[in-house]
Write a structure and sequence with these properties.
Structural class: mainly alpha
Radius of gyration: 46 Å
Helix content: over 70%
Shape: elongated
Number of strands: 0
Distance between the termini: 142 Å
Oligomer: single chain
Order of helices and strands: HHHHHH
Length: about 180
């Protein structure tokens, strides 16, 4: 059988990949002639040299890129911000995002309408309670108490004012009674 001709990267014989079984690699090395092994070693050295050269070129290109960005005033934070903005634009342009956004918008509108309805119902209930005979009777009694306790204050005011007036009147009466007892 004739040995394969040198075709460089286009060779048809298999080359073991990283991590392949060592026994298969050893078996292949035994089947190669001395000349083929020398040729492969030369090619290996050449590929390693090319990789080294490409790594150096890449490092130089990255350095040049960094210098250009520095001159343009582009820093890592700005790049991150641009990447996030671009990613967000990509996300918002997807069909899934648009459908989800539309669904949430509709849900928000329905929730808003429901809260409005509940608010209206509560307001109506408070109006009903305030217009009920029981509340009116209670309100009249509070006003009556207020006029007895507060004296010359105009009718109306809130319930807190009425309670404060009652407390002040009680305290004044208690002080007056105590003063009378001390003088007797």
């Amino acid at each position: 059988m004739e040995p394969p001709t040198d075709q460089g990267l286009l060779r048809s014989d298999s080359i073991p990949e990283v991590g392949e079984d060592a026994a298969a690699t050893v078996g292949m090395a035994e089947t190669l002639s001395e000349e083929e092994q020398d040729e492969l070693r030369k090619e290996l050295a050449k590929v390693e040299e090319e990789i080294q050269t490409l790594s150096q070129v890449l490092a130089a290109k990255e350095k040049h890129l960094a210098e250009i960005k520095r001159k343009l005033g582009i820093n890592s934070l700005q790049e991150l911000r641009q990447n996030i903005t671009k990613s967000w634009q990509d996300v918002t342009s997807t069909t899934a995002y648009k459908k989800t956004s539309e669904t949430l918008s509709q849900a928000g509108q329905k929730a808003s309408a429901a809260f409005s309805t509940v608010g209206s119902a509560i307001t109506k209930k408070f109006e009903d309670v305030r217009n009920s005979p029981t509340f009116k009777s209670f309100e009249e009694k509070v006003e009556n108490l207020k006029s007895k306790v507060g004296g010359s204050k105009p009718a109306g005011g809130d319930f807190g004012d009425v309670l404060n007036s009652a407390a002040n009147a009680s305290a004044t009466e208690a002080t007056a009674e105590q003063t009378q007892e001390e003088t007797h």
